[in-house]
Amino acid sequence: MTYGKKNTLRNISAVTAALAMTASLILPMPVFADTGSSIQEPDSGGMSSVQPVSGSVDPVENAVSYTFTAADGTQGTTVNTAYGTISIGTDPSDPAAYIYTVDPTRLPGKVRCSVDSSNTPYVDPDGSIIHLPLQDTPLSDTVSVLALYDDGTAAEDGSLTFSIQGVNYAPYNVRQPDTLQLSEDGTVTASGSLNDIFSDDEGFANLTFSVNDSQTVEGTYGKLVLGSDGSYEYDLNNDAAQALSSSVAANPSYTIVATDCHGATASTVLNIVISGKDDPLEFSQDLTLTNGDLTGTVAYHGIDQQSQGSAVLSICANGGTPAIVDDSGSAAVSGLGTFQLTSVSAEGWTEYSFVITPDTAITDQIPYGTQAAVGFYFTVSANGSSVQSNSLNASLTSTAPAPAPSPTPTAPATTTAPPTAAPSTPATTTAPPTPTPTATATPTPTATPTPTAVPSPTATPKQDRQAPAVAINYAAETVNCTSEMEYSIGEGMVFQTCSDHMSLSSFRWDGTFAANVYFRYKGTDVYNTSSAVEIIIPVRPNAPALNVNNYTESVEIPQGYSYGTDPNNVNTAGYQNVSLAPEQTVYAVMNATDSQFRSNIQVITAPKRCAAPNVTVDYYNEVLKVSLPTQYSLDNGVSWHDCISGMPVTSVGWNGGAVSVLFHNPATDTQYQSDNETLAIPARPDRPSVKTTNESYAGKKDGTIQNVSTAMEVRSSGSATWLGCTGNTVTGLSAGSYQVRIKATGTSFRSNPADCAIADQSGSTRILSVDDITFKDAVYGYAAYEKQTFKIKNTGNADATITDFKIADSNDFDLDGVKPAGVPAGYELDNWAIAPKTGLEPGTHTGTLVLTYDNGAVCTAKITFVVTRAEQNVPSTPQLDSETASSITVKEIGASSTSNAAAVYSIDGGRTWQDSTVFSNLAAGTQYSIISRYIKTADYKASNNSPALTVVTMKAAVTPAGTPTSSPTATISPAEPTATPKSSTGTQKKKGMDWTIWIIVGVIGVAAAAIIVVLRKGKSTDD
After folding, report:
1. Which of 500, 307, 284 is nearest to 390 (CA)?
2. What does CATH list as the number for 685-763?
């Protein structure tokens, strides 16, 4: 603040932007203002923990004091601002000093919050923390300041503006959503809503939801779709569920992340249970004949997923012994040939593709140029069930050699004839003929040789062989090659001789890369070297991504996986939930299948337990001190219930006797539930045993109560005030009835009172008393309530005769028992009971038990019974009826089915409610969320909020009309809807002119804009 002349008035005003998008505007106006402190809500503790801020107004020359002016015109050294209080400081040496204090209860947009056991804040309508959510534009609190001269005239006026900004609380997950239940061939769609995740900014409506940054997630057994309103739906892939059985269920789970408009997140786990059923066994097959080999497929259905890994396939030909297909997919089928699997698939049906190479020992026996029929069938067995295919017939083509040509004559031998091959004859049922040497002929010198027909020797050409059928055994990590083969690592490399069933490591494969290996049959005397077949050894699969369920303290090991506690022995079969102790580590792999190797190992480590709760007893107020969200159990941990702030000890089963209660902090998304803590709540102390001495005579006031201590307190019967005892004896007492009890301490409850009486020595005393009777609270609609007995005590020195016995000023209670005739001196009787009537309305019901006895003496006891309102159903999501650029109308929701209560509606997250279904004066092109609830009635609480309806108002335009002019007037013609000035910054003066500034907010086209209109007119002689 600069120095000015006396009696010069400076008009202090601030021009603030109406929208965040409005550009800064600098006008040539004589305006100045002091900027107060920027006030920021801390990360915890709320606005209530913000300390007052202090500062000084820039001093004005010759000013001796300062005052403030509130928005309502109130002036003084201490005034209420819009959001707080400002006062001039108390330091005489600095009259311009001020102290500003925020009043959290007056902040717009505030919400109430509490903190849980880990000091995490969350929205709670009953919470003690007042919290201001983070805003795009901080709140501004401006107050006018007037500097005064010593004669009380104004020196200068100005303003102070304080900036108030909140902080963002991350969304908070109140509880895990309910598990969805689906079933094979049954319930295939299930849905729900995340009603228990809340944000501090507009409640639930401003959250977005995702799983792995997506709103649609495809899983093994179905698809999860998330809605923008927190709803979710899971659609079961019923074909995939056919792999389940009645004894095996699938348990997929999804971590759903809720993100608020500031990017803060909370997560919750949605668990899904998919039940299977047993399917009937079926079989199908298809067969073709190609180049002498039999190729085809055989498929079965009905042996469910848990048995697939142990299914046994066998093949039987011509009624022979069935041949079981081994782990490499091979089988030698008697009477047929070699069976070899080429692929296996399992999606509903398990399908085997195969090739059968007929045994040449069989086909060689078939006469040349003919075929022979062979019959065979398949059988699949697993889990005590088996299914057999239909009989199949195949025609095998003869591989017998063609008959040899007719023999041709040769010249007679002059020497010993060489061995010759006997003529070949076509094979019928025996093996092909083998060349056999003939007998040696001995020459006769004189004899003339006779020509003999000798067949000419014929060289047998080598035969071609098909490329070997080499396959990978993914479980054993071997190749089913034989010593008849040779291999090459990579195309064009040197071939090396194979051994039987070679390990994949022999080919320099370690699982981190894919390897290409070529195999072929070696050449022999009978066969040529075959063509090579390429085998691609794939990469080992990545480790699984299994997650620990912190709420069940287990990890689900799916079927087809194994686990173990030793990384070198991960072989325990999966398809079960494995319990994990805190910080325990297990290892999991995905098992090898017919088409992939065993995966790499996943290391799974369970989290720690969260800290145990610290629950204590406030013995003075007889309540529990507990941090939320602690839970308690009254049945040794079978069921748990949420604690509330300031809960009475009677709510955990304490009724004066000693009890032990279990407490724990529930599991979170990052920690297991805490260990259970046992709180031993002691019994209420016994009544003290005291003695009395009577007055010497009426009015003497020398009666005493003895055997008391400073740990006790005393009162006259019927008085509400207890007085502490100062010694071992209470003196100076008149005749009458008194009560003495042991006071509550930090470790012990107060005792029940001991009744005693002091009489004057002039006669006998009859003093009756009854303890007050308080019943446990009940919810509206309760059943018949259990009766409670009470005692009538006579502490006088003479028998008392009861003349009347009733409940006064209440019809809410019933007495049980006949009116007692009397109570002997020094006795207490408990033959009577009292109970609340059924059907009482919510509220506190009281009555007075009145006993009238000798000569009109009266003994009373207070009866108290509280009935709380019942819960009612939640209304459905509001439905849109119509909308304009400035209003939204929803359809009226019918009355509550529980209470017949009417519905009310809110557009601000439940801060305010209205009966009308029409919301007016809304901003154009703006998204709003509308919720409903049923109102509180005499018998029922207000319902929980419905799911939100999200509506965007129509867009509109503002069209200024008119041209600039020196005329003192201007016209603004709005388009539909009518735009109205948002704010006026006030009238400013400049020598020769004055003007009024208006900020008009509207929508031009599709964009929002702020138009600042300056209207000038008139002239002035001063600034």
Report:
1. 284
2. 2.60.40
SS3 506: helix
**Pair 809, 848: CB distance under 8 Å:** yes
Q: Could you report how far apart the first and last alpha carbons of the chain are, in Å?
A: 17
Nearest to 730 by CA among 716, 745, 717, 747: 716
CA angle 439, 440, 441 (to 5 degrees): 115
Q: Are 1008 and 27 in contact (CB under 8 A)?
A: no
Q: Span 869-954: which CATH code?
A: 2.60.40.10
Q: 494-549: per-residue pLDDT in tens?
A: 788 999 999 999 888 988 888 889 999 999 988 999 999 999 999 999 999 999 99
pLDDT band at 1019 (very low <50, low <70, confident <90, very high): very low
What does the DSSP 8-state code read for residue 465?
Answer: -
Lowest-pLDDT choice from 191-200, 358-367, 876-885: 191-200
Structure tokens, 715: 């009162």
Q: Are strands 888-890 and 800-808 parallel, antiparallel or unpaired?
A: unpaired
The domain defined by 764-868 carries CATH number 1.10.40.50: no
Q: What is the CATH number of domain 282-397?
A: 2.60.40
Beta strands (DSSP E) in 34-185 are 34-40, 53-56, 65-69, 75-76, 78-80, 84-88, 97-102, 111-115, 121-123, 129-131, 139-148, 154-165, 172-173, 180-183
Asked if 125 contacts 65 with a C-beta cutoff of 8 angstroms, the reply is: no
Report whether the peptide linkage leading into residue 629 is cis, meaning its omega lies within 30 degrees of zero: yes
Identify the helix (H) or strand (E) that includes residue 808.
strand 800-808
Calculate the alpha carbon distances from 911 to 134, 165, 590, 662, 930 in Å.
17, 20, 52, 37, 12
The gap from C-alpha 903 to its chain's centroid, in whole angstroms, comes to 29
Distance CA 829, CA 806 (A): 16
3-state secondary structure of 305: helix
CB contact at 8 A, 302 and 279: yes
Neighbours of 527 (CB within 10 A): 14
Q: Which string of DSSP letters, residue by residue, matches 653-716?
A: T-SSS-EEEEEEPPP-SSSBPPPPEEEEEPPPPPPP--EEE-BSSTT---EEEES--TTEEEEE
Task: Could you list the beta-strand ranges (E) of 717-787.
Answer: 723-724, 729-733, 736-742, 754-758, 768-769, 773-774, 778-779
CATH code for the part of the protein at 173-275: 2.60.40.10
Please classify residue 291 by burial: count the beta carbons closer than 10 Å to its beta carbon, then call 0-12 exposed, 13-18 middle and 19+ buried. exposed
Sorted by where each begins, the domain ranges of the chain are 34-165, 173-275, 282-397, 472-537, 548-605, 616-681, 685-763, 764-868, 869-954
For residues 259 and 211, what is the distance between their CA atoms, to the nearest angstrom? 11
Query: Which helix (DSSP H) or strand (DSSP E) does residue 308 occupy?
Result: helix 305-308
Please state, in angstroms and rounded to a whole number, the distance separating the CA atoms of residues 354 and 336.
14
Q: Label residue 525 exposed, middle or buried (CB < 10 Å: 0-12, 13-18, 19+).
A: exposed
Give dist(CA 801, CA 266) in Å, integer. Answer: 70
Contacting residues for 667 by C-beta, under 8 A, at least 6 apart: 550, 551, 553, 610, 673
Task: Report residue 916 as tokens.
Answer: 């009308």
Beta strands in 553-625 (DSSP E): 554-557, 561-564, 572-573, 576-579, 585-590, 602-605, 616-618, 623-625
pLDDT band at 615 (very low <50, low <70, confident <90, very high): very high
Predicted confidence (pLDDT) per residue in 974-988, tens digit: 444 444 454 444 544
| Residues in Cβ contact with 84 at an 8 Å cutoff, skipping those fewer than 6 apart | 100, 101, 102, 103, 106, 141, 162
933 near 943, Cβ under 8 Å?
yes
**How far is it, in rounded angstroms, from Cα 423 to Cα 407?**
7
Positive/negative CA dihedral, 854, 856, 859, 860 = positive
Burial of 782-804, coded b for 16+ CB within 10 Å and e otherwise, reads: eeebebbebebbbbbebbbebee
